[in-house]
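JOB MANIFEST
job_type = single_chain_structure
chain_count = 1
residues = 142
[input]
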Amino acid sequence: MDLKEIHKAEENTRREDYIHRALVALDIFVNVVTGGNEDETISSRVRRISDAHKGWSWNPGVWISKALNAALNLIQPNHGIHAEAGDLERSARVEAIESHALYYCDGADRSCPGGQECKGHRIVRSTYSALSKEGTKNLKGR
């Protein structure tokens, strides 16, 4: 899978409808309950495990991951890569939202996640009062 296809998978994630996002949330919930990382889908997890163990292992978790990854790839070629691209896009969207909740800018800073809606790269008062002096110094430097 090349970079262009990965970007296309990320773009598809940006356009997910409500039902799809709810199903992804359920997928992530089941992944976490079974010991996976938060904000990671089962598909991403099984691909990561499959790639980490090139040969067959005596670990039943590896067997299950390899079998599930192979089955998902039959349904959608490179399913795990698509899932990882989706996870990455969703996490980037959350990071942008949370960063914008802490800061706002004048729109001159093109790297600000708030874009043209921002009003100046300063810490929001309610967040500022909740932070220690040391934490505030670190945030102002961003």
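[summary]
Residues 122-142 have pLDDT under 50 and may be disordered.
The beta strands are 103-104, 122-123.
exit_status = 0
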